[in-house]
Specification:
Largest sheet of chain B: none
Largest interface: A-B, 33 and 50 residues
Structural class of chain B: mainly alpha
Shape of chain A: elongated
Oligomer: heterodimer
Order of helices and strands of chain A: HEHEEHEHEHEEHEHEH
Shape of chain B: globular
Number of helices of chain B: 6
Strand content of chain B: under 5%
């Protein structure tokens, strides 16, 4: 059969030309690159530690990725950044230890700005602590076996031959502005999967990117709440020597041990009440 | 954090306005408060029991709302604020009735002694619990609400 090698060669050529190769898009912003630029030595936090007076004013911002802010890099649409930060804001608006949450536009954060830039932004917004949010988003596109049909042009518009995965990891690190003390961190993650045609790939990747960030922010808000609880417990137990929290009444959490309030009756009072009851009942019978 | 204790979350989870007065920091705390609640209930004039039951239903959320600003990020548990309300209510009602004036005055005197001692000391009287602090404001607000509940209802105008 002389045709057989020819057919095999044609199919191999079609597969080589028609099939997509796997593609990976990475969007990353690093807290370390922002706060501790490589050319500088890491600044030492204030040895006196942080003294947080409740309720706190919290600023929250995406740290710049690479050499530009998130918005400039076109990773987040202008309206989306505020929308994402509002997810955290909504989750914490009723918390008694927070008086205000201010989303800070990433345009105000310089790439490799360090603590100096963080201080400037915090002063501008009048916040006590800053939550710096860094993002690591990886999008993989894997061709399915029938993606060779893209060669037919029609297939590129009709058959969903691309498997798209979007993995997002968001990390929020909270710093005390006055002392530059690291307070706590919380992660948030999400995974979005889908299929698309060749023609629709970029659109779907953009949509998945936005959806992945939204889901990861919601996860972050949940985790941040738990981490704040754990942080307060650590401070109350005296395990965080570098941090103290002072409540609205001016009582230090470290000194009070995080004690709660109770309506109490002492045993002396109980005894007095019972004696009174005894006398009253006897008096009534008489 | 307990789902029933009174915290600032009560604005979103309103059941806490009632349940905060039911949950306690241990059986000793609960028992002492139960006795403090039972004594005025037993001593109350039989005709006032309905008023007492109504007070036990209406006063907890009012007391809780008054306490919320003092709590900050902490939580509150205990029925002693309510107990103070009942002592004030029953004491005043007894003092206003013929034949039970001394008993009423004794109850009111005891209550005022407790409130006075706590105001001076700024904490619970002869009580040093582990892990929580007495909130004297709960007793003060409870007593004031109790006094207000003891006032006779405004007489209805008779139809002409």
């Amino acid at each position: 059969m002389p045709c057989r090698p020819l057919l095999a060669a044609t199919l191999a050529l079609m597969a080589a030309v028609g099939c997509n190769t796997p593609e990976t898009h990475v969007r990353r912003s690093s807290l370390m690159d922002y706060l501790y630029p490589k050319e500088k030595a890491a600044p030492v936090p204030n040895p006196a530690g942080a003294r947080l007076k409740l309720p706190l004013k919290l600023g929250i911002a995406f740290v710049p990725g690479g050499n530009a802010s998130w918005r400039v890099q076109n990773l987040l649409a202008p309206g989306q950044e505020k929308q994402l930060l509002d997810v955290v804001k909504q989750s914490f608006k009723d918390r008694p230890w927070i008086s205000e949450i201010k989303p800070v536009p990433s345009a105000y954060l310089r790439s490799s700005g360090g603590f100096e830039n963080m201080d400037q932004v915090a002063r501008m917004y009048g916040v006590d602590v800053m939550a710096l949010v860094s993002v690591d988003q990886v999008q993989n596109t894997d061709p399915r076996w029938y993606s060779f049909t893209y060669l037919s042009i029609v297939g590129a518009y009709v058959l969903p031959g691309d498997a798209n995965d979007t993995n997002t990891l968001i990390d929020a690190a909270v710093y005390d502005v006055a002392s530059h003390t690291f307070l706590l961190r919380a992660p948030g993650q999400s995974q979005v999967k889908g299929s698309s045609t060749w023609a629709n790939r970029e659109k779907q990747l953009r949509e998945h990117s936005a959806k992945g960030l939204q889901l990861a922010m919601a996860d972050l808000a949940k985790n941040l709440d738990a981490e704040v609880g754990a942080f307060k417990a650590e401070v109350a137990r005296g395990e965080r020597k570098d941090v103290d929290v002072v409540d609205r009444q001016g009582v230090s959490l470290r000194q009070s041990g995080g004690r709660n309030f109770g309506g109490s009756t002492s045993w002396i009072e109980v005894l007095g009440a019972l004696v009174l009851l005894g006398f009253a009942l006897r008096f009534r019978r008489a | 954090m307990d789902a029933f204790a009174l915290t600032a979350e009560a604005l979103r989870e309103p059941w806490r306005l009632w349940t905060g007065h039911l949950v306690h920091f241990g059986w000793e705390h609960a028992l002492a408060n139960a006795v403090a609640l039972a004594v005025p209930w037993i001593l109350a004039p039989p005709g006032d029991r309905r008023r007492l039951a109504l007070a036990l239903l209406v006063l907890p959320p009012l007391l809780s709302l008054l306490l919320l600003p003092s709590l900050g990020a902490s939580e509150y548990r205990g029925a002693s604020g309510l107990a103070c309300a009942l002592w004030a209510l029953v004491g005043l009602r007894l003092a206003g009735r013929q034949g039970s004036l001394p008993l009423g005055l004794l109850m009111l005197g005891g209550l005022l002694l407790k409130l006075g001692a706590e105001t001076v000391l700024g904490r619970g009287f002869l009580l040093h619990p582990e892990g929580w602090r007495t909130l004297p404001a709960a007793h003060l607000w409870g007593a004031l609400l109790g006094f207000a509940s003891a006032l006779p209802p405004r007489p209805r105008p008779h139809p002409a």
